[in-house]
Design goal:
The structure holds two protein chains of two kinds. Chain A has no helices and eleven strands. By secondary structure, chain A is an all-beta fold. In chain A, strand 7 and strand 8 form a beta hairpin. By secondary structure, chain B is mainly beta. Helix content of chain B is about 0%, strand content about 60%. In chain B, about 35% of the residues are buried. The chains are: A mainly beta, B mainly beta. At the A-B interface, strand 4, strand 5 and strand 10 of A face strand 4, strand 5, strand 9 and strand 10 of B.
């Protein structure tokens, strides 16, 4: 069966510090991978998606970047965090377009 | 791009009553409409989905209806139970596109 791992579960970082959130998928190959952000009381905002190694599409201009160094690994990064980067970050995968997306447990990031 | 609006933002019902959540979408090319349930501190999980070639789908106490002409779809939960309390998200996906647009979410509270 397929599983998705996302870590850490919670993170408190000072303004201006770097960020690295990691997501890995097991039990499948060549998945579509996604990073979403969920602000408090709001919906899910798509940040990045990837259809293959090294292929990253960005939906929203921002302080964040994503990379996919391996087929089942997706990393969300920032060189310098802003207060506005606080939120709940979710990694997800799907086998194909137009199919169910499976979400990780999320990372709650607080920038102080 | 696609824009999904969801109403209401909060919904409180008595146990045993029905709950209805409505969503509208803007792009008539969208053809996949999933509904996700998110419990506190967890990632969203798919509860039901519908594709544009059908108008209604039912799974036990949960049903989804789709009106392509009006570009809206709804989630119906009958005989609600306290464990149905969660945040529910609708989403719409465009054919051959790798992103899924989510509504802002509905916080459902079922009072025992």
């Amino acid at each position: 069966s397929q599983t998705i791992h996302q870590w850490p579960a919670t993170l408190v970082q000072p303004v201006g510090s770097p960020l690295s959130l990691e997501c890995t998928v097991e039990g499948t190959s060549n998945p579509n991978l996604y990073w979403y952000r969920q602000a408090a009381g709001r919906g899910l905002q798509l940040l990045f998606y990837s259809v293959g190694i090294g292929q990253i599409s960005s939906e929203v201009p921002q302080n964040l970047s994503a990379s996919r160094p391996q087929d089942r690994q997706f990393i969300l990064s920032s060189k310098k965090l802003l207060l506005s980067d606080s939120g709940f970050y979710l990694c997800a995968w799907s086998k194909e377009t137009y199919t169910e997306a499976f979400f990780g447990q999320g990372t709650r990031l607080t920038v102080v | 791009g696609e824009n999904v609006e969801q109403h209401p933002s909060t919904l409180s019902v008595q146990e045993g009553d029905s709950a209805v959540i409505k969503c509208t979408y803007s792009d008539s090319a969208s053809n996949y409409f999933p509904w996700y349930k998110q419990e506190l501190g967890k990632g969203p999980q798919l509860i039901i989905d519908i594709r544009s070639n059908v108008g209604e789908k039912k799974d036990q106490r949960i049903a989804v209806t789709l009106n392509k002409t009006a570009k809206h779809f709804s989630l119906h939960i009958t005989e609600t139970q306290p464990e149905d309390s969660a945040v529910y998200f609708c989403a719409a996906s465009l054919y051959n596109n790798n992103d899924m647009r989510f509504g802002a979410g509905t916080r459902l509270t079922v009072k025992p």
